[in-house]
Write a structure and sequence with these properties.
Layout: H1 12-34, H2 45-80, H3 87-112, H4 115-144
Helix pairs in contact: 1-2, 1-4, 3-4
Length: 153
């Protein structure tokens, strides 16, 4: 019987799909933050259309993000929770998980909260969303670099 390589809950496709969805969320989040909905009446028709389109793409990407969390993140957490191989990578993973949970909760507050809540949650949601890719790259840097870079000369 052939021994299979342990993937720690992640497949290559799921990992890169998650990275692409996170990048899409980051880009659309920056556009929505730079073109806030409160300024829609002062925007040109092109800006208003762009703002609306990014809101739709951000919402659909959020839905895909939730699906990919169920497909990739939770199995990864289940496998790695007790392993704790490298303390730095484990703590970066825990930090990434906590930031993702905070982004999700503030996103729900933006979606379903009152306008008063929206005003103070929006900068927090944007700041966490802009900071999260740094933790993600630090936690997954080895997967982002091709395996041939790890070979000794």
């Amino acid at each position: 019987m052939r021994k299979t390589k342990h993937l720690a809950g992640w497949g290559r496709t799921t990992f890169f799909l998650m990275a692409g969805v996170c990048l899409t969320l980051l880009i659309t989040g920056v556009v929505m933050f730079m073109l806030p909905a409160s300024d829609m009446f002062e925007m040109t028709p092109a800006q208003a259309s762009w703002r609306h389109a990014t809101g739709v793409v951000h919402g659909v990407s959020s839905w895909l993000f939730c699906i990919l969390c169920g497909r990739g993140v939770w199995p990864h957490v289940r496998v790695m929770w007790h392993k704790q191989g490298t303390p730095v990578k484990w703590w970066l993973g825990m930090s990434n998980l906590m930031v993702l949970v905070a982004i999700s909760l503030t996103g729900l507050m933006l979606l379903y909260g009152s306008p008063d809540i929206h005003d103070w949650v929006s900068p927090i949601h944007f700041g966490l969303g802009a900071f999260c890719p740094l933790i993600f790259v630090a936690h997954t840097w080895k997967r982002l670099i091709p395996s041939w870079c790890d070979r000794k000369a």
